[in-house]
Amino acid sequence: MSLSIREQEEAQLLLVVEDLLGRFYQSHTSSEEKKKLETELHDLRTTRFTWQYCLDNLDKFHNQYLWFFGSTTVEAVLSRWSSLSASETAYLRIGLLKLLTNYTTATPALHREKVAQILAVVASFQFPTDYPEYIEHILELLQERFPIGLVLARALGDSVTQKKYVVSLQWQERFKAAVTPHIPDILRTLEPYFAYYLASVVEPRNASDPPTSIEQYTNELLHMLQQYFGWIEMQGVEPTLAEALLQMGRLRPTTDETVVPVSALTALTELYYRQQLLAPATSKQIVLGVKELLQQPGLPSAEELYQDKLGDLVRLCAKRELTAKHELDWEPFLESFYQYTVNMRILQLFYEHLDTWIVIYQVAWDKQVSYTDPVIHRLLSEVFPLKLSTLTMERMLQPNEGWHEQLAMCDLDVSDEEISELQKYYNLGLELVENIVNLAPQRIYQAVLSPLVTSDDSPYRRGLHMLHTIAIRPDIVVPDASKCFTDFIPACQMVARLGVLLNDKVPAIVAWLLQEQLELFTLLVDCLQPFDRFYRWQGEAQKIIVATTQMMNTFRSLLMQIEPFKGTMACHKPPAFTEQQLKRLITQLTKILQTTEHQQPREWRLLMKEFASVLLHVAFSELLKPRCLYEYLDEAFLSCNIFAHEATTRQMIRQAVINPLLTKWDADSATDASSAADGQLALRREYLTRYVRTMAQTVLSVEPAAWLLTYDAESQYRTQLQYRLELQDLTELIRCYGYFDTSAKALLASTLRDVIERALYIYTKTNGRGLQIPGPAHAPQSQPLPRARETDGEGDDPLPSFCRAVIEVLQVQLGEPFLQQVIRVFLGQARTDAYAMQQHRSLISLLGIFVLIVRQPGNRTLIADIVQLCVGDVLPVALGQAEPRSAETHGRLCIALFELFDAILIHRWRYFVPPQGPAQPLAPALSHESQYAAILQGYGLVIMNSDDSELVHNVLASLRVLNERNSLFREPYFAEHFAARFTQAMLHVLVEAKGDLYQQMLVSLLYELVTIDRRKFYDLTVTVCPALQPELRDELCQCTDMPTFERLTNQFVDIARATAITLRPLASTAGTTSNNNNNNNNNNNNNNNNNNNNNNSGVGGVQF
């Protein structure tokens, strides 16, 4: 049979399109050829292979590439919906519905879902005015052809929750409001299917049951409900629907399959993520149903994912319903959950159950909650405290199923700064007991704290006894020491936490515990000095050290309850210690902290940190007068080298020593109180100077010109490292005293002046490099020092960070002349040495110093030099191509530089824009025009090219503040040379995907820029989005109120993005082999041109 001419043409057209698509998707097709193929395909879309042709023949396209291209051709017409005629929109709607209703279950799911999604978008444009039958079509298909109706119902939810094509937020909300009243009808239509599922899947099957594909449709239905629950009105969820979902969430007695039950629990959980209350009847049904789920016989052995989802549902249900006035029966619910917690054998899920109990107690105790059921209060204060606290202690001391071993394996690679998994496990139990104390303090004291501290069989008492035995006889072998100390650690933590919480109710027990622990600590230090005796215990050494650390942590926690810190309300409790006991405590602490050996084992370092923490607390509390405290610190401790300790430990020791020297001492009983005070000040200055010299002995003694000649390789390494550690320690120490009063800062500044001058001398003599060893460093083989912190790069000098801290804290006390001397050293070095520009971390610190100088009044003579350095030298480095290994520090450098530019433009605006005199009719001439233009160009390049969201956000915020304070956008030079370029750049960024990150800021800035030249803004919108309707463009450019401008801008962005989607779905699925080849061939050219591209152009061809 011969074909007609039209049929022959169509057949030929299909062959042409298939050939083009086949070549396009071949992996060896080059990028150049793909661009040509895209152009040809686009031309066919606009001529012969139109959306009408594709719609009529889509069910005849059997080639997968051809079908996808045809469907996207139909889909693309949605982006120009407003230009379609009424007949075209009707033709599209009717054709899509016909196509969908003719599909069967044998039709690929992708085809059904794609057509349903396009039809749903059409409905979002036309329902309810031009397509009032939309909901009726969904209901009919659900009743007569369930799989097709389900696809269409799911597409309805997609069109509400997802932003597609030209649908603006307002349009989406209108469509949502239109369909929401019909959702209960859709949900009621689904109820017979729930019953059908429960009858055919949950109960045993027979030979006449339908095929197992019913589970697939059920799972799809549950996913649809989960989506609906994210946006529908909660009052519309009826109890029958909740009951059906709960029944579907039950475990099946005949199979271990949990796909449908998990989906049902997930859908129910979604109900509680919304900030709306359910109807009382629905809430009651869910609480009853969850209780029954918790009572399922096979629950403890069910699949972990199922138990996890059930735990989420319990947590959210309890959190939301406990505060609702629904008069629910909570006792069986909580009892069932308690039994489930007791029977839990999965470690991670037990974690989560403890967390759920914490949530329950927090909700019941929250004073901001308007309503708490008195029955709930009774249950949580009388019935469950003893049960839960007992369970928690048992599991902390005797975890089930080898949990300790699991946690120990997870903690093998934990660093000192990280919390171990075992400690996280302890913390959850401790937090739960803390929350129970809020409702039942006496019960917790009687059931937990009192037995722990008084019973000889408690793990706390056994641990103390074991430490006492070891202290008296260090060489004795004690059986079961490991198990004893393992239980002692959580017991100690429980004593500390409860002692703090119950201190007001039982203060005597806290003082007694402190006395007991002080005696034991003194005994340990006396008998085990040096502490390396612990290592004679071989495998038990670690446990002993950890146990001692935990005891000191408990001691410090309880100690903080006896006396307040300085500046707090006076405490009227009786002292826990006599002055002689405190002197003994300080003596023992300083004795153990004088170690000069670097502690390698992690446990040893943590122990030393705990000792230093106790000493620091004593120094900052009011347990002793400052002078007495300082006099108890013996001379050997004050002069010893403590660099064997970690940085944090050293910092606490330094603060403990310096704090009493910065605090005023009580005047002696002299006739002239003023003379006594002056004498004490001189004495404190002398002591402080001596201690600071001990801290900075390498900085003050090393000779930069000769140290490499006079030291051997190992000594060079030690000197270099000691120099860096000293400056780093001083930097951190200074920052700790930013909140101290002026007199204390003045004392600190006077003692640091020599150190600052000497460090600047070293910096100058070494050309900004500090003390560095040429070539590879030789680490000493014996007694290595701790590494320098990573706050400075390996080759960067820590002096800029040190000087920044000095200026942050002591700027006023040091005086302007001295500060200018410091700044000019850095400026001179940076201008004369290119090496300084390569050290990003030092440069970041230097820029931070400049920010501090710029923000403070005065220092005018420095501003010109600072601006010149940053614009001429630092800006090219910041805008240049970053190496992969330094990308992070390069990003921080950019943020620091533009923070400085922001400070210059805000606080030193008159440096660029002189004030206008009363006799000047015109605006004054701009000062330093090239520098001003360079800064603004940098702003523009960041907005266009940077992928650093923090940097772009900071630049946009800076522009906003500058315009608010200094009317930047109306400044004549900016308005003439930069306003149009910034406007075009912001429009292009808005249209890009990354524009969503800054949409609100960009729109507000554009609103201000529009007023400068509305005609120019009109032309720019034509450049960025030619497809924008003229009437919408006119309305946008003439808009004079912010809400309307924001709405119109959102529509502008939607249309601009939609018109950019032509063959994007096609290109996104193409092979990448040929692209990779071309990219590899062009890498050299791209790398050579990167800097020029970054500095000269951006998105949309905007030139800066």
TrEMBL record:
InterPro entries: ARM-like, ARM-type_fold, XPO6
Keyword Cytoplasm: yes
UniProt KW keywords: Cytoplasm, Nucleus, Protein transport, Transport
GO biological process, one term: protein export from nucleus
GO CC terms, sorted: cytoplasm; nucleus
Region spans: Disordered: 773-796, 1068-1104
Protein name: Exportin-1/Importin-beta-like domain-containing protein
